[in-house]
From TrEMBL, chains A, B:
Pfam families: TetR_C_24 (PF17932), TetR_N (PF00440)
Domain of life: Bacteria
Protein name (record): TetR family transcriptional regulator
The keyword Nuclease is assigned to this record: no
InterPro entries, A to Z: DNA-bd_HTH_TetR-type_CS, Homeodomain-like_sf, HTH-type_TetR-like_transc_reg, HTH_TetR, KstR2_TetR_C, Tet_transcr_reg_TetR-rel_C_sf
Amino acid sequence: MAYRTTALRIDRDQALRTRILACALQRVASGGFTALTMQALAEDVGIATGSLYRHFRSKGELAAEVFSLASQREVDALGEILRGPGEPLERLQLGLQRFAERAWHSRQLAFALIAEPVEPEVDERRLRYREAYAALFAELLEAGNRLGQFQVAQVNLIAACLVGAIAEALVGPLSPQARAAREAGQPALSLSQVSQSLITFCLRAVGAPLPQKEEPQP
Amino acid sequence: MAYRTTALRIDRDQALRTRILACALQRVASGGFTALTMQALAEDVGIATGSLYRHFRSKGELAAEVFSLASQREVDALGEILRGPGEPLERLQLGLQRFAERAWHSRQLAFALIAEPVEPEVDERRLRYREAYAALFAELLEAGNRLGQFQVAQVNLIAACLVGAIAEALVGPLSPQARAAREAGQPALSLSQVSQSLITFCLRAVGAPLPQKEEPQP
């Protein structure tokens, strides 16, 4: 009996932890990491703030877990494309396009993941996830090099450059300032402008041929 | 007399603040932001920890000031080259090379500025300084576009891509892990490999012709 009681408690604890993380992700997706306070979250979940601290020792630890949960989804989604069917060149284009689309459709969350100022625990995870993205690009660059589609000497370094370029390209368009400007009726870049420019930038950077129709006009 | 006493006190306060920041920068340059604790810093400066808090309300505020002090120097150094004499194409190459060199020669500081996990106040400044770098690149891209040296459609977006690529290219080589690997005798990229790859990446990305000798071999 003691064993079954313990197993049951562990299951319940795990279920509650999963529910806390889901509520926390919801908060970050709608208001960024600033909206993730222990008190508001405890209310969302319907538990006491003290119980929340039994699952996550600090706001930083919780934020880091939410970050990983959301980032892993993005890495998986990108990985499916970059490691999927098709030539490396097509996979790179499609991967960039989908990554920008996903960010565009959850702007607040994407900005939170990429650039929102936040606890050092999250910065730590950012470094780790950027390495995970870079590993996917490195694999793709190797494949493209072998086929002569890309001309990249230092694969790992250039994979990191791609990750940095993609993240930084999105920071501006996703930022709260851009949102305010858009809402004030000021001109803003469209998703297709951003994704097109990013694709052109990355293809050129790795020495890939540009699709004819996408030749940019300065 | 009251006026002179007050003026004297302000001067002294300002001098002490400057000295605190100089000591703090020294700490970050040799041990990163983790080495910047209020207590250790107060000892370096030779004042009580309480006095330190009269100048900087928190570790985050102090770290942000140190960050800005060091970053402004980098922005100024890069700006001198990017806005200096020569063709835009040459200025871009030289700017990238010098930026990488400066980082290489103060690795710990460069890693701290670019990527060390740290208080949100510093993340906030990182965003601002990345905009300052991007503004310099945007100006250069405009100039290069006009001369037909670069082929960039969305100047501001691509300027941000360059900033992201440069920062991310350096994170790996400057990281504490890379240092540990180097010290353990594992193979590591040299400054010239990093700076050459970065130059090739950026020149191609903006549609600039590559110098013949620098054509990369996959």
